[in-house]
């Protein structure tokens, strides 16, 4: 695992966007795995600037979603599909048919999970997977004690994650869904390069457990230690407990 400490979130965003640009120059039809949450926004802003200036061509890339709420209509502004359309696909000019994600509205949720695993495999797997981290060490929506070998499946959110995410739902925890579909930890580990960005002091404990703790399901992000090509980018505040 490579750990890179940057001065602030903007520097982390620029560093990771440049890594994505480098990948796209080598592999124009790369599959980019994208994450939601506030943390990756500086990455998407920096990548958008590179695309708009002509520094990199993203027109042949494909985009893969990490996780999704179950039961929110697809056009709900906080479904991750909507969030990614707004924050990633539209700014980067990526066509809807270059996007793949799990169907959080499906009646047959296990079927939707299996279909998404098939779609990822048929796309040739994910070349670079962006990850944020929850305050409890979760990646995607793999909450603590998720199996390190897990595949895409339905999960129940912890109270802490619903509290953390209530800010996207007018601060009202009652509006935060209880269930989600997430790529499993085993699924995530199959991406060829994992890039986790963590910023702010609220992530310092989770970052320390990820980088210096034992590989343990109680901190799902610690599974990155098992990956041959994992990069953890942290700002000074998130690195404070390393
Ligand atoms: C959610 C997402 C994760 C994300 C986490 C942290 O739980 N499912 O993918 O990493 O939030 O979000 P933030 O970056 O806003 O702290």
Task: Put the structure in a nutshell.
Its EC number is 3.5.99.6. It contains seven helices and ten strands. By secondary structure, the protein is an alpha/beta fold.
What's the structural blueprint in terms of helices and strands?
Elements: E1 2-6, H1 9-26, E2 31-34, H2 41-53, E3 62-65, E4 67-69, H3 80-92, E5 99-100, H4 109-122, E6 128-131, E7 153-156, H5 159-165, E8 179-182, H6 185-189, E9 193-198, H7 204-212, E10 230-235
Parallel strand pairs: 1-10, 2-3, 2-6, 3-5, 6-9, 9-10
Antiparallel strand pairs: 4-8, 7-8
2-amino-2-deoxy-6-O-phosphono-alpha-D-glucopyranose binds next to helix 5.
Structural write-up:
This protein is an alpha/beta fold and 242 residues long. It has a single domain (2-235), classed as Rossmann fold (3-Layer(aba) Sandwich), CATH 3.40.50. Helix content is 33%, strand content 17%. It has a seven-stranded parallel sheet, with helices on both faces. A three-stranded antiparallel sheet has the order 4-8-7. The longest helix is centred in the N-terminal third of the chain and has 18 residues, at 9-26. The two termini are 14 Å apart. The mean pLDDT is 97. The structure holds 2-amino-2-deoxy-6-O-phosphono-alpha-D-glucopyranose. 2-amino-2-deoxy-6-O-phosphono-alpha-D-glucopyranose binds at residues 35-39, 66-67, 132-134, 140-141, 161, 165. The site of 2-amino-2-deoxy-6-O-phosphono-alpha-D-glucopyranose has 14 residues, from helix 5.
